[in-house]
Design goal:
The structure is a homodimer. Helices cover 41% and strands 14% of the residues of chain A. By secondary structure, the first copy, chain A, is of the alpha/beta class. Chain A has 3 domains: 11-74, Arc Repressor Mutant, subunit A; 117-124 and 367-473, Alpha-Beta Complex (Aspartate Aminotransferase, domain 1); 128-364, Type I PLP-dependent aspartate aminotransferase-like (Major domain) (Aspartate Aminotransferase, domain 2, 3-Layer(aba) Sandwich), CATH 3.40.640. In chain A, the strands form 4 sheets. The first copy, chain A, has an 8-stranded mixed β-sheet, with helices on both faces. At the A-B interface, helix 1, helix 4, helix 5, helix 6 and helix 7 of A face helix 1, helix 4, helix 5, helix 6 and helix 7 of B.
């Protein structure tokens, strides 16, 4: 009898699994006698005790039966079975699964890890000093954090710290009872969709759009209406006359175009929402990094009718693999959102929440943001200077007063030529990312999203040189 | 003009917010002149610079306009607005929200924090030594964990460690490519529901049932069929003849009855699933804590047709506020499950994953489990002895070879008398929990779930004394 040991764990465990595979696979039929322990031991070059233990375990699992002196037999109810197939596919088992299979790729993933300079905008600024600071917070937090199930809505100490933080930085006055801790903007979107949207409901998203928000809404199942944006943000005069349940916007720094929503547009949007009793989701993903005097307060700070669901995340301002964010929720929706959070995952990890609360309370987050903004300004200026000097005649750069990326348009370029440019860049170790993937209506002029957060100013300088050379050569 | 400063942040920020509230609240109408900076400064007893800064900020937000010498005016497009209402309710905005509002209370929450001895089963064993061990793991992990967006499916190093662990402890041979890291059993349920279930689909759950699984499925929206269990687990002969999409079971230790599913029932369930091409979700919530020789291998270890979705969690075996678990997924469903995880939260926090991988790899988890099992056995024996000696004539105790709770039945009791007992217990500092809340068909005999994990053996001794006294007095 051929038995293959898989090398995992103790010998008797390997032997038990091998015999079990034989029994379940039908190679050892129901009622058949297992080899004498002495014979099997010598066949396999293992001790007889190993075999005895394995047989005992099979019996304790009722897969085999020991018959006094006559030996051990495979249980009778073991009919031969076929072995499992290799990776195979089934048709989508739910409408949700069917929709997810139709979605595009994950825009956050680096296109090619191979590339030397990737002007990707999914990767924020990461500072080594942050690692040790965060490590200390975690260590302290681990000592005095409650280990039992955390409060579903989030730790009160963190919700209070967030209220103080956004009052200072974003002009948002929030009640800790209206804050729900989530594991980031993505979860906020998914929970808000569950609480607000059925498949019949209309949702307005910006065009161009943040792809993962679009994907979350598309997968959830609802009617998506794209409304164009310009240099003043969402064009509110284009908002649908038909009933709308939710408007998803990035007012502080439209993604990816980079525009900031003007006050009059903000007022029009708020009026639209309160007239139609619909909701606004404000995704403030990088509103804290602004390069002019003061950050522009969040849309939520103008929301006297309590229609704005404000979503903040620590992914961009601290680090993405932290997976922590928050929702400032209209009072009418807090209960439903907490219920959705409970059923989604019973709340966020507690130690991280304690650590983040102290990170905010101690002022370390504020310092980190000041340093981060200064460093981002430096990198942004390098990108602007580099492009002006190496690629100025090809690229029309749209400046932006906030965030981690700029947009560069290529007047006179065809999309074929853009594809060539991106491929040439790849060959020369430069990761370039077209902007039109984010548009529902592809613009006439091709353009690039130029992320500058994850490269040093020296790298950015080199990247722009390579970019200039590529542009000259296509 | 009355202005109320909220005391949060710098004075100029407080003043800006107060003025903004005045403008947005309509108390300062569009076009009206703001007080002269000197007057306001002396009114409020603040420096004139504070007022100047506040006015500048209002102008930068276009809420006010500075007119050379003549002063600062409220912008004209500011119509008077009503102030926000206090916490109010709206009708459910989605079918999901409507369903969640109809759900029962959260069974994990302690009934009364006031109670001295709570025989609650939602609280696992927590050891102080674990805290320092986990703290060290976190500290080490923080130093070498990737800060960028984590892999959606989970860190490969953790998926590998889990495969080794469950091969050793649960007899499950899994391929790391089929493991998806989730934030616990609750998220596993919610994601599996999204991938497998539309509202037309039937799901079988056990009766009695784990309430949070029931709630997640109910909220998701599907047709729930309860099938009774006995001392051999799910009564497979009662499985519906109609088409079923998913069967949710707790075979290692049925919750809350405590029975273990027999081999023949396991085989019948697997046959049922493969004949009907339906799926089985095996919730192995505490299968690792067994008090007899070896843990019984998971149902998944018998699954040669790849129909079992195996769900493991670190909530019970490490600590609940960690929020980390895993799914061993049939190959056919891995892609859909990872897509659902991506859209739900973009993956689990990375530092915890690194720490858990090392916690397993180093053998610390295994040691922790050995110690934990020994301690749980001690506490369980205390509970059994205590009840035999103090409440033996009232309670028929059902022993169980695994887990963190026992069930005690009260023959001859009415439900009215049970209610009296629970109330009397509460008055005397004893938290008692009726089992019938977990049944869809309320049993004739009332009973209690007796959780013993979160109390020391001394506390358990005292608790049983109090229980005995209460039983004699009702």
């Amino acid at each position: 009898m051929h038995l293959e040991l898989d090398g995992t764990g103790a010998l008797y465990e390997q032997l038990t699994r091998a015999l079990k595979r034989g029994i379940l696979g039908g190679h050892l039929g129901g009622g058949s006698k297992l080899p004498a322990t002495r014979d099997l031991a010598s066949d396999l070059q293992v001790s007889r005790n190993t075999v005895l233990t394995a047989y005992d375990l099979l019996c304790s699992e009722q897969l085999a039966v020991a018959r006094g002196g006559s030996g051990t037999y495979v249980a009778h109810n073991m009919a031969p079975r076929t072995s499992p197939s290799a990776r195979y596919t089934v048709r989508p088992q739910s409408r949700y699964a069917a929709r997810t299979r139709r979605l595009g790729p994950n825009m956050l993933a680096r296109t090619q890890a191979s590339v030397r300079y990737d002007l990707h905008c999914g990767e924020p600024l990461l500072s080594p000093s942050l690692v040790s600071a965060w490590r200390n917070e975690l260590g302290k937090a681990a000592l005095h954090t409650e280990l039992r199930y955390p409060p579903l809505q989030g730790l009160p100490v963190l919700r209070q710290a967030i209220c103080d933080h956004i009052a200072r930085r974003r002009g948002v006055l929030a009640d800790p009872d209206d804050v729900v801790i989530v594991s980031g903007t993505q979860q906020a979107l998914s929970l808000v969709a569950r609480v607000l949207l059925d498949d019949v409901h209309r949702v307005v998203i910006e065009d161009p759009r943040y792809e993962l928000a679009f994907q979350a809404l598309r997968a959830h199942g609802c009617r998506i209406v794209s409304v164009r944006t310009d240099e003043d943000g969402l064009v509110t005069s284009d908002l649908p006359k038909a009933s709308v349940r939710l408007v998803y916007v990035t007012p502080s720094h439209q993604f990816p175009s980079g525009s900031t929503m003007s006050l009059s547009r903000r007022m029009e949007l708020l009026a639209y929402a309160s007239e139609r009793r619909c909701w606004i989701l404000e995704d403030d993903y990088d509103g804290e990094f602004r390069f002019d005097s003061k950050p522009i307060p969040a849309l939520r700070s103008l929301d006297v009718r309590d229609r704005v669901i404000y979503v903040g995340s620590f992914s961009k301002i601290v680090f993405p693999s932290l997976r922590l964010g928050y929702v400032v929720c209209p009072k009418a929706l807090v209960g439903d959102l907490v219920a959705a959070k409970k059923l989604a995952d019973l709340g966020c990890p507690a130690i991280e929440q304690t650590a983040m609360a102290e990170f905010i309370r101690s002022g370390r987050l504020e310092r980190h943001l000041r340093r981060g903004t200064a460093e981002l300004r430096r990198r942004r200026n390098c990108l602007i200077d580099g492009i002006r000097s190496h690629a100025g005649k090809h690229i029309r750069l749209i400046d932006s007063r906030a965030g981690m990326h700029l947009t560069g348009w290529l007047p006179g370029f065809t999309y074929a030529r853009l594809a060539k440019l991106i491929e040439l860049g790849r060959q020369r170790g430069l990761g370039l990312h077209a902007i039109h993937h984010h548009y529902s209506v592809v613009p006439d002029t091709p353009g690039l999203i130029l992320g500058f957060a994850s490269l040093s100013h020296i790298q950015i300088g080199n990247a722009t040189k390579v970019l200039g050379a590529c542009l000259d050569d296509v």
